[in-house]
Amino acid sequence: MTEQPLTHLNAAGHAHMVDVSGKDETFRKAVAAAEVHMHPSTLDLILSGSMPKGDVLATARIAGIMASKKTADIIPLCHPLRLTSVTVDLIGADDKIEIIATVTTRDATGVEMEALTAVSAAALTIYDMCKAVDRGMRVDNIRLQHKSGGRSGEYNAK
Asked: Recorded GO terms, molecular function (predicted)?
């Protein structure tokens, strides 16, 4: 089999889903992060469990996990993957909540988009649940921190 370049454009220049059928299924892992900046008093309400809409951190964690499992449904041209684990950690300090998602699979393509989708959905959930108290919140710094597995090797953000 002649190896085709991995591109979302076909020979006619039209978007298509990349054919990964010739790639080996290997263990793959991605870690993504995001931040939600807010007024310190908003963070106090979240951490004390006093936000009017309920447990913000638990809801954001579940939203991130659920979103990672639906990435192929919301990001065009992403492959549906069999995720083996998804964790979403939320760390509140000063005027922000840092969100870190770790996603793993044993499949033919990576899970970077699933990790990035997880932190994005968790961040938007925090915003949604707290916007009545603090409309000035800011979702910021969504980024890939680590990826391993597959042909392209390991990546670690600096």
From this structure: cyclic pyranopterin monophosphate synthase activity
As given in the structure block, the two tokens for residue 110 are 């990576």
Paired tokens of 107? 């499949």
Single out the catalytic residue among 94, 95, 107, 128. 128
Average pLDDT over residues 56-60: 98
Instruction: Quick: pLDDT tens for 105-145.
Output: 998 788 999 999 999 999 999 999 999 999 999 999 999 99
Provide the whole-model pTM: 0.88
Residue 134 bears catalytic tag: no
Locate 83 and state its tokens: 């995720």
Binding-site residue ranges for substrate: 77-79, 113-114
For 20, counting Cβ atoms within 10 Å of its Cβ (0-12 exposed, 13-18 middle, 19+ buried), the class is middle
